[in-house]
Amino acid sequence: MASNDFEYRHLETLDRDLGRYSSLERATAYVARPLIGPGISLIFIVLASLMALVFFGQSTNVFIVVIAAGFGAYMALNIGANDVANNMGPAVGANALTMGGAIAIAAIFETAGALLAGGDVVSTIAKGIIAPESMVSANVFIWAMLAALLAAALWVNLATWVGAPVSTTHSVVGGVMGAGIAAAGFAAVNWPTMSAIAASWVISPVLGGVIAAAFLWFIKAQIIYQTDKIAAARKWVPVLVGIMAGAFAAYLALKGLKKIIKIDMQTALLIGAVAGGLIWLTMIPVIKRQSEGLENRNKSLKVLFGIPLVVSAALLSFAHGANDVANAVGPLAAIVQASQSGNFTDAVSIPLWVMVIGALGISFGLFLFGPKLIRMVGSQITKLNPMRAYCVALSAAITVIVASWLGLPVSSTHIAVGGVFGVGFFREWDTSRRMRRASLNIPDLPNQPSEERRRRKLVRRSHFLTIIAAWVITVPAAAILSAVLFFIIRTVAG
């Protein structure tokens, strides 16, 4: 009997000990979870540096290139964490894609865009921001590019942490400008180019917002507010999908395929018109079949916009990978060329191994850190459904085409987020207009108090102000940080 009591107490003690270990394991896993992303990121940065060592091991400047490869990998991770959310956020917010599906599609198409259509010849100093001849030596140029790359990456990292989608292009531009001023003075900066970039702060989001709002107004007027919504959808949804197909065909021809073939604006618009017409004709029987048996209400309409929205997100990711990978690896490629040959005034082609670092870094950054900004863009600024998200995606493609035609530098981040703002503010205006009309038709309808009207705002003002503030200070903040880093690097290297 005593033996049984002893065994029972022994087992009870063992159970308690095992329970403690189990609790400890759960606690350790909970504490370690936030460290998984940074840990994998650090491993990727180290592997990128080792890749540079393998491909550049025989050079006298191998140490500089290894460090630059690490900085380039860090920048690519941050582009994936911040920039890619603009393409996927609307589709996820509209429930057309799950978070996992969005990340998978974005990773595949971003990588494909970067490797297949990216890597076009880039200017040695970020699109002519500063004059190459102002640099007194190749070493000064390399220090400036290192400072610019690290400053841009740190700024985008900070913006992602606070939940603000910012332009990685503007971050790089600010970094290059700040390092250029620190290295060669204010006269080194191409101020007309900087003025055009500053103008794009306003042009990009306003143009994207206006176009997105215009399409949402059209959808509401021609489909949603019609008595027979399904009949109206059969008529207009194929047209809208055709417009989207034409816009994306022109967009990809103009911006996403520069490495494969050079296409001018007129040819791109012609390609877009042909593609749009073909898709319009194709979608007529498809939409007719999809709409059979649907109830005559708004919820039924969401089904018809789901697939076009997923396709648009994939195409935006492809074009983004083709264009914006240079933000991560352009300065790195310039450092590689300057370290290899001492030449830093000519245009530079991006080597394949450098492109691989950029493409994989964007995908890893999206997978590890992207969900935060995807949720911000997709659901926390304003509520999106497939129709509204469609308007945002379409405005992104059209705005880039219009801006290219006008010769204006624009930011894909500002366009996409501006489209979300445009949709939200249009909904506020439309809701207010309809309530005023209802109060005129029903004189006894009570007016809402001002506090209730504020509560019913459809765009979150706190997010709006945070994002606008981040946009305005991106270039100067990256510039100041880059200048400080340049002086530190020059002091350490000198």
Automatic annotation (TrEMBL):
Record has RNA-binding as a keyword: no
Database matches in InterPro entries: Phos_transporter (IPR001204)
Residues spanning the membrane: 35-56, 62-80, 92-116, 136-160, 172-191, 197-219, 231-253, 265-283, 303-322, 350-369, 389-406, 464-489
Membrane topology: Multi-pass membrane protein
Gene Ontology biological-process annotations: phosphate ion transmembrane transport
Main localization (coarse): membrane
Sorted UniProt keywords: Membrane, Phosphate transport, Transmembrane, Transmembrane helix, Transport
Any one GO molecular function term: phosphate transmembrane transporter activity
GO CC terms, sorted: membrane
Subcellular location: Membrane
Statement: the UniProt record of this protein carries the keyword Magnesium: no
Family statement drawn from the similarity comment of this UniProt entry: Belongs to the inorganic phosphate transporter (PiT) (TC 2.A.20) family.
UniProt name for this protein: Phosphate transporter
Source organism of this protein record: Boseongicola aestuarii
